[in-house]
Design brief:
The chain is of the alpha/beta class and about 425 residues long. It is built from 16 helices and 14 strands.
Length: about 425
Amino acid sequence: MTGEPAREYTLEDFESVAEVVHRVARNTPLESSRHLAEILGVSKVYLKCENLQRTGAYKLRGAYYRLSQLTPEEKARGVVAASAGNHAQGVAYAARELGVKATIFMPLGVALPKLQATKRYGADVVLEGGGFDDTLAAALAFVEKTGAIFISPFDHESIILGQGTVALEMLDAAPEIETIVVPIGGGGLASGMASAAKLVAAREGRTIRVVGVQSENTASFAPSIAAGEPVTIETKPTIADGIAVARPGDLTFGLVRDNVDEIVTVSDDDIARAIVVLLERTKLVVEPAGAAGVAAILAGKVTASGVTATILSGGNIDPLLLQRVIGHGLAASSRYLKLRILLPDVPGQLVRTASIVASKNANVIEVIHTRHATDLPISDVELELHIETRGVEHGQQVVGALRDAGYTVRVGQRY
């Protein structure tokens, strides 16, 4: 890979930071998933549950360590952050614990639970800008005006070191881990975890493989690594707003380049499926960005060597979004199907098709019956059935039974 070597840390750096971070951060559980292990074909897959961390995400670690290193004069000036969620809550909580005034700029459309949580931790919240770029610009203008200290969400040495403590906990609890899968947005978490994990492995005379995961709609690291420097990409909307970053950090770029062995991408469908699997199989509520590692495993994007671990990096998901994501995930898994069936416009056809679906133990949840579509033959109607199934194979059985009965069926997985 091209570019200058990244800043090198020592294992002692991370261990000393961990002592500070653990003043407030929990050593979160490391759960195992037999289901994911079977899919991946390894003996064990671990889940580091930072969704159960104070403030609901790993961000508290870096934020607390960053604020703890401020001088008394800097603390007196107060701190400023721009965030739509986890970083805001981490900075607000850390500031409260350290007696520092915090001002958090959040976009106008920020989810209500995140807004309320940030205020509850004692920060002054300013709603500014329809998108994050506008919010960030407002925060930086505030810094220029007041002299407050800006707290970057990922591109600062103290932030990187704080996030790296996650890997120390994982490897202390499960020294046999050989592959770590980590979500990547701006690169703070991946930089810290990959650096720390490689140092632990080197001390033990072995290697650890680190796989980074980005949303395919905001995957800035691959083109940046190809260019040899951080580049800004044009992003597309994604449900994984926690890793939706258009440009790697200047510090994190080199650390990810040098310590992350492979970077893969996942779709929103992959992420939605992962959230549903985590709910059903592990009873854990995880936000979209936090499910990226599991999404990569389920989508077959990870080639593991031995025992594997991933981090559920956050659990702060708006219940309204969760409701939509669950529906999206079920549809992506063919657990919800939308069938368009061409029927002759004669009595009894609706009953007949419903009977066929019922005979296959599928459940009809919505029916739309129309004869007004312009592309329909004049003697036909279209029946749109939304049904619940047990998965792809069951859905195919239902569709096959309808076609065997002589119906023309079109299958669409989206509502």
